[in-house]
Amino acid sequence: MYRNKSFKEPKFLREYLVTFPVNHGYIGAVYEDRVMPAMNYNQGVSIDQTKWIGRELTFDLDLTDYDEVRECNCVGRDFCEICWTLMQDAYKIVDDTLRTEFGFENIVWIFSGGRGYHAWVLDKIVYDLSEEQRKSIVAYIQLIYTTVNYEKIEDIDTISIPLRNRIYRYLVRNYFLDNDVEYLMKLNGIGKKTIENVKEKLTNLQKN
Description:
Strand order of the largest sheet: 3-5-4
Structural class: alpha+beta
Number of strands: 5
Distance between the termini: 50 Å
Strand content: 5-15%
Largest sheet: 3 strands, antiparallel
Number of domains: 3
Oligomer: single chain
């Protein structure tokens, strides 16, 4: 794989692809300077040494991030029909949030080729988003920031209620409504009161 190749004009990219055919490629940001590899006569310009002036908004969903909650025997890059549903649920939640809360329309989802999805938001407005604005969008979707001190979904800030309810609908609804309280308590060690509260909220969401 060749990384961080840049071209001053589209015609140079075309010439490169004609001369060196590739199986697949990813087009990245537009930078102030041309990113170049180091050579004997040139120190080059690394991707970290130049400022980007426009880029897509991308999200990378990997199954390896779900190793702690996978209920099958898969780990790392392995996946099966059971744990792949985690990727499908994550896709639904992220896609719906980007479209509903942020108003993005042109979102392309691509299989990463190994263990998950890549989401590319291609709306023109995203090219001008600053680093801080991008971090704010990610922070809203991320919701829970640490796997050490788990945050209760009931305690999530009120500004994120639409996202919290979306998680209930896509990720929790069938699991909780299709199983009785005793089964859920035994399987997950969740308290009876918590399970009953979740069931009540899910039922109310269905009515709405």
